[in-house]
Design a protein that fits this description.
The complex is a heterotrimer of chains A (515), B (329) and C (369).
Chain A: E1 13-22, E2 25-35, E3 40-44, H1 51-58, E4 66-71, E5 74-75, H2 81-86, E6 89-92, H3 104-109, E7 115-116, E8 119-120, H4 122-135, H5 152-164, E9 170-174, H6 182-197, E10 201-205, H7 209-215, E11 218-223, E12 226-232, H8 238-246, E13 264-273, E14 277-285, E15 289-293, H9 300-307, E16 315-320, E17 323-325, H10 330-336, E18 338-341, H11 345-349, H12 356-361, E19 369-370, E20 374-375, H13 377-390, H14 407-419, E21 425-429, H15 437-452, E22 456-461, H16 464-470, E23 473-478, E24 481-487, H17 492-500
Chain B: H1 2-5, H2 19-38, H3 45-70, H4 78-95, H5 100-125, H6 129-148, E1 153-156, E2 170-171, E3 174-175, H7 176-194, H8 196-206, H9 208-213, H10 218-241, E4 245-247, H11 255-265, H12 277-296, H13 303-328
Antiparallel strand pairs in B: 1-4, 2-3
Chain C: H1 2-16, H2 20-30, H3 32-52, H4 62-87, H5 97-114, H6 119-143, H7 148-166, H8 175-179, E1 186-187, E2 196-197, H9 199-217, H10 219-229, H11 231-236, H12 241-267, H13 282-291, H14 303-323, H15 328-368
Antiparallel strand pairs in C: 1-2
Helix pairs in contact in C: 2-3, 3-14, 4-9, 4-12, 4-13, 4-14, 5-6, 5-7, 5-12, 6-7, 6-12, 9-10, 10-12, 13-14, 13-15, 14-15
Classes of the chains: A alpha/beta (515), B mainly alpha (329), C mainly alpha (369).
Chain lengths: 515, 329, 369
């Protein structure tokens, strides 16, 4: 890799006045953006601020309506991934763009195969792939493994290896850390540092501001399709970046009355699932909000899914209101009094083309049917209208298709589904992921309200402010085990440190806080 | 960390012969052995020649169909496309006195055009190929019947005999059509395994949008595989006309099901992204063996489809099981 | 981001209030029932014009149209069977309905024609038999996880083979079977309406009502739409995904059984290739379901659209038979079916394309994980 020889002032990538609208809505309203060679440039903004559109335009996946994209002084034609690639732009998308049936080495070179006399040079590809994997701190033996056989986090690293495979001068990483474990993130950062030293420009998109302050040189904040600021990262605190993103200061912790004393409604003792989590024990009382906090991949989601019977535990005991339950399916869990808000709204939550009424009633068909056969449509409408009012869902009525609502309102609809038959235990996985700020606050208030009304609430989240704000107690999950417990009002830094864990835990390590 | 430290299923990259193919070879060998023991006439030259010649058209189309299915597509119109080619070429052979080479050329051209129509509809409309090709199945059948105009084509001369199942169609006892089928399969196998654009077919079947982003020319590849399948349907039509005689209006009916059966028995995943032409050759051979066996054993011919159905279920079922076991590792 | 874009687009359009013709055009594009109604009116009017002009071989009048309903009955019932399966999503399709018609018809033929069972128990047994055949498909697809295309291709082979072998490739047309033809006699209607085939009331209306009630009024219908729209979300909503999909296939078998009985009555004979001769009955049934607006991706489609599509195809076919002489009629029916299918899928395309682009990649990778 050659060092960029141009002067420091000459940017590697320059976007000028880029506009893009989708059917009358402006996603980007004239954005200027520059990346220098040898810098890691963070791009932040709330959902809908225009980040994804901006990368799509840089990578040529979409064309801008107006404005220019210039790479090393040459203007790129819009909407051509090939041209962008030729210019040295490589993109790693949020969802690994890989092909499950092909081995890793082929995935890395797909579309730009190494050839010998017109044929795919498998041996050369494997050698290069092994070299790349080694550089990424991965097992070079992976080169021959079919991608479908890899865990999801490793697929992400494979797709990063893929981007590195072609001497890229500009690397775009779209939320690379979303599914990486902390150790994998460290590996990634090492790689980014070495790229920086080699004069590669990196655009790094992430929601995790703590990461940005570690790795980035400059940060650009987008809000509502406009660039709000571009500043050296060192000049900004996390709080300042957050303020730039939202346009107003982030809200503090909530005030709640103390949790009433009482027996545990939800109790897990020594819960385990092979390859996901081990020996997880906790209790949640009525009226209490307990948060399972962990970085993505730590096992919080897996624990939540186990409680709901999606991926049942293979060891340990689960009790709801003192009665032992073994949910093997979500229906078992619901019957036992456990409801769950799934973490991935689009994939696991909504029926986008169907009405609000449908979306709410679908989880409670036996209860909303006469003789368990005929859907009681009047009641269905009444229930849906009731929730539209109560959860302040912004929609014309129960017949509105959910897909036409904003993310936050969709999330409220999915939440409403969990509340039709007041469950004693409510499990929420990433309750506000991909939700705009206003709706986030509303959902938080709702969750606290539900606890106040007597539900036992368990929140599995990787969102630290959310965790601090909601929880009466925070259980930090690390590597599939509960690593620490914090009372209400703990400092964010302490919780995060516990979740990140500076020493790698040994397999036989005993957790400290036995009850 | 435990999730990370979990050992991975280490598996060498797709070898030349995969599980399904080895199993198929075993099943065919077993069947042949059993048939050889129970039916005297099984291991006669004429019977084996007959099996290979019958299997050839299915194999030839299967070569293209494998590529189509690997891209997560399907083409159910091949039988109708064959009918169009057969009626036009048979007419030209009889009335126009067409020679061998121009006749084959004409067949390939018509077949490729019909395939290209499928490819264009699939690539540009982006509707599920089964629906599109159901539509063209009807349309092509209409075109064929229109040209038949209510009469079968009788008295077709034996110009295409070298491709047919008769004595003229054999050298050293091997039917030309089957040798041709195997040669085409070998070419296709090499293409799909060693040529970049051939590897791209697997990527398209895995995830077409991701393939596009990786620089794969998805539209062009789709046009290519459907056109190829049509072209091969044209070639198969030549083999079926072969020694001439009669071309009936029902020509090619049900061919699509036989071809698809051969492809899926050969281990190609109907969801795309996985499969080889070698498997298809074996799958077709298995289907041909079963057909021949039912006849030789004096069972009702109709039982053949029952066996084909069962073989499809067993082949796909064992593949499902293997995948499931692999995933749970 | 894209969600926001779409949403505001809709708002924007709602505010703008486009002109009446534009709104009508949108209605026809987005509401399949409205489009099919329009096409039906156009078809009938056009046939009237041809009739007046003397271009037809016979009168295309109310009596003819009513008589054509005879072929409407099995076709519509099978299209509804296909609808249930396609609605269940994950590429749901049933290639075996034709074979189920053949095999169930033969079973019914044996019961009534050979074993001399009384009619009512035979009817019930035949319907149960059809349901069992569908349940086999359901078991393979929903429980074992076979792709439905492959599973029903295989069972289609197997069922059609069994139907042919069951009676040595010969139809059953003994006296009791021939008597069944009475089922298909024409019923005189009051108010000067033309006589209509009896099976219209005895089979079609019950079947349509059954499917309509199932889809629109029962918890099963909700589950089916849920599973077809988003399987994972359905699972999280405590819906039994495999149970629901299994029932869809079993019901398709039940409806195929009903179509089989009707077909036996119509032919006055149980024919072993009743549902599989030529291109078979599965293809037209799938065509009609798609034409009726059932999304091949699952989760979207209405009974009204499917019934209208079946009616359109049947009356169009009836018209074609009057326009073309001899075997040409049958040919042009193929042309019409093919064109309708390609045209209706192209109509579905813009919406489908957008969704596929966004969902496709993620869905696939996630599915494999």
């Amino acid at each position: 890799m050659e060092r960029e020889t141009e002067g420091d002032e000459r940017p590697l990538l320059r976007l000028a006045g880029v506009r893009r609208s989708y059917g009358g809505v402006q996603a980007l309203r004239g954005v200027d953006f520059e990346v220098r060679a040898g810098e890691v440039h963070a791009l932040v903004g709330e959902n809908g601020a225009g980040k994804s559109t901006l990368i799509k335009i840089i990578s040529g996946a979409e064309a801008a309506d107006a404005g220019t994209v210039e790479m090393a002084g040459r203007v790129l034609p819009g909407g051509s991934t090939a041209a962008a690639f030729e210019a040295g732009i490589a993109t790693v998308y949020q969802e690994p763009q890989l092909f499950g049936e092909l081995p890793v080495a082929e995935n890395i070179f797909l579309g730009r195969e190494l050839r010998r006399r017109g044929l795919v040079d498998r041996a050369a590809q494997r050698r290069r792939a092994e070299e790349l994997l080694r550089r990424l701190g991965l097992d070079p033996g992976l080169a021959d493994v079919r991608v479908a056989d890899l865990p999801v986090a490793r697929r992400q690293l494979v797709s990063i290896a893929k981007a590195f495979a072609h001497e890229a001068r500009l690397l775009i990483l779209d939320e690379p850390s979303a599914i990486l474990t902390d150790r994998e993130i460290e590996v990634l950062f090492d790689v980014l540092r070495s790229l920086r030293a080699h004069g590669v420009g990196v655009v790094y998109i992430s929601h995790r501001l703590d990461e940005l302050t570690v790795i980035s040189d400059r940060v650009t904040v987008l809000r509502d399709g406009l660039r709000v600021a571009t500043r050296p990262t060192a000049e900004l605190t996390i709080r300042e970046i957050a303020r730039l993103m939202v346009g107003h200061a982030p809200v503090g912790a909530s005030r709640r009355r103390p949790v009433p004393d009482g027996p545990a409604v939800l109790e897990a003792a020594g819960l385990s699932r092979r390859g996901a989590f081990q020996d997880v024990s906790f209790q949640v009382r009525a009226g209490e909000v307990v948060a399972l906090f962990g970085l993505v991949g730590s096992g919080t989601g897996a624990i939540a899914r186990a409680l709901y019977g999606i991926d049942p535990p293979d060891g340990g005991v689960l009790r709801v209101a003192g009665r032992e339950v073994r949910p093997r399916t979500p229906a078992d869990a619901v019957a036992a009094g456990v409801a769950m808000l799934p973490g991935d709204r689009k994939a696991q939550g909504v029926f986008a083309s169907k009405s609000i009424g449908f979306n709410i009633s679908v989880g409670h068909l036996p209860a909303l049917s006469r003789a368990r056969v005929w859907v009681d449509r009047a009641r269905e409408r009444a229930v849906a209208s009731g929730f539209i009012d109560r959860l302040r869902i912004k929609a014309p009525g129960p017949a509105t298709p959910v897909g036409t609502l904003s993310g936050g309102n969709q999330q409220k609809v999915v939440l409403a589904r969990q509340l039709v038959q007041r469950p004693p235990v409510l499990v929420l996985e990433e309750p506000t992921q991909g939700v705009d700020v206003g709706a986030k606050d509303e959902i938080h208030d709702l969750v606290l309200g539900l606890a106040d009304e007597g539900s036992a609430v368990l929140v599995a989240s990787s969102d630290l402010p959310e965790t601090i704000r909601l929880a009466d107690r925070v259980l930090v999950v690390r590597g599939g085990r509960i690593a620490a417990e914090f009372p209400r009002g703990a400092a964010q830094a302490d919780v995060l440190a516990a979740a990140a864990g500076d020493d790698a835990p040994r397999a036989d390590e005993e957790t400290g806080e036995e009850r | 960390m435990t999730a990370l430290a979990r050992p991975l299923a280490r598996r060498p990259a797709a070898g030349a012969i995969e599980g399904q193919e080895a199993v198929l070879i075993g099943v065919i060998a077993l069947l042949w052995a059993a048939l050889g023991l129970s039916v005297d006439t099984f291991f006669t030259a004429s019977n084996l020649q007959n099996i290979l010649a019958t299997v050839a058209p299915v194999t030839i189309i299967g070569v293209g169909m494998t590529a189509v299915i690997v891209t997560a597509g399907i083409d159910v119109s091949v039988g109708s496309a064959m009918a169009v080619v057969m009626v036009i070429v048979a007419r030209q052979l009889r009335d126009g006195g067409l020679a061998f080479a121009p006749a084959v050329g004409l067949a390939l051209l018509i077949g490729a055009l019909l395939g290209l129509v499928n490819g264009a509809l699939v690539a540009y409309l982006r509707v599920h190929p089964i629906i599109i090709t159901f539509g063209t199945l009807n349309l092509y059948r209409f075109v064929a019947l229109e040209i038949f105009d209510g009469r079968e084509v009788a008295g077709v001369p034996g110009t295409l005999g070298p491709l047919g199942g008769g004595a003229e169609g054999r050298t050293l006892g091997l039917p030309h059509s089957w040798v041709l089928a195997v040669a085409l399969a070998a070419l296709m196998w090499a293409y799909m395994r060693h040529v970049p654009t051939g590897r791209h077919l697997y990527a398209i079947g895995g995830d077409a949008e991701a393939a596009r982003l990786a620089g794969v020319r998805v539209t062009r590849r789709l046009l290519g595989v459907y056109a190829l399948t049509g072209l091969l349907a044209g070639l198969a039509a030549c083999c079926v006309i072969g020694g001439g005689g009669l071309v009936a209006q029902s020509a090619g009916t049900g061919m699509e099901l036989q071809v698809i059966a051969a492809v899926v028995i050969g281990g190609t995943s109907i969801q795309g992204g996985r499969g080889t032409v070698l498997g298809t050759v074996l799958g077709a051979l298995l289907v041909g063996t079963v057909t021949s066996a039912v006849t030789l054993l004096g069972w009702p011919n109709e039982l053949t489809s029952l066996f084909i159905g069962v073989f499809i279920l067993v082949a796909v079922g064992s593949d499902l099981l293997r995948e499931r076991r692999r995933r749970s590792l | 981001m894209t969600t926001t874009a779409e949403e505001t687009t809709r708002d924007g359009q709602a505010v703008k209030r486009p002109s009446l013709p534009a709104r009508l055009g949108r209605l026809l594009l987005h509401d399949r029932v409205a489009l099919l109604c329009l096409l039906l009116v156009v078809l009938v009017a056009w046939m009237q014009v041809l009739d007046r002009g003397g271009y037809l071989l016979g009168p295309y009048d109310a009596a003819y149209m009513a008589a054509a309903l005879e072929s409407f009955v099995p076709l519509c019932v099978l299209a509804l069977a296909e609808t249930l399966v396609i609605l269940s999503g994950r590429g749901g399709i049933d290639l075996s309905v034709g074979a189920m018609v053949s095999l169930t018809g033969m079973a019914f033929g044996f019961m009534v024609g050979e074993w001399g069972w009384p009619l009512w128990p035979s009817l019930a047994a035949a319907l149960a038999f059809g349901t069992a055949l569908g349940a086999v498909n359901g078991f393979l697809v929903a429980v074992l996880g076979f792709p439905s295309l492959i599973a029903t291709l295989a069972t289609g082979y197997a069922y059609s083979s069994l139907a042919l072998v069951s009676n040595d490739n010969a139809p059953i047309s003994t006296k009791p079977i021939q008597d069944l033809h009475e089922l298909t006699s024409m019923v005189d209607l009051p108010f000067g309406l033309p006589p209509v085939p009896e099976q219209f009331f005895t089979f079609l209306i019950p079947c349509v009502a059954l499917v309509w009630l199932l889809l629109n009024r029962t918890a099963f219908g909700r589950r089916l739409y849920a599973v077809g729209t988003n399987e994972t979300a359905a699972r999280y909503a405590a819906v039994s995904v495999s149970g629901t999909r299994f029932r869809a296939f079993a019901l398709a078998g039940l409806l195929s059984g009903a179509a089989a009985i009707v077909t036996v009555g119509q032919f006055a004979s149980a024919r072993p290739d009743a549902g599989t001769v030529g291109n078979g009955m599965a293809l037209p049934a799938i065509t009609i379901a798609v034409l009726g607006g059932v999304a091949i991706t699952g989760g979207a489609g209405r009974v009204g659209g499917v019934v209208l599509a079946a009616l359109l195809v049947v009356w169009l076919n009836a018209g074609i038979l009057l326009y073309f002489e001899g075997s040409a009629g049958a040919r042009f029916q193929l042309l019409a079916l093919g064109l309708l299918l390609v045209a209706s899928t192209s109509l579905n395309a813009p919406a489908g394309r957008r969704r596929r682009r966004r969902r496709g990649p993620a869905g696939r990778t996630a599915g494999r994980a």
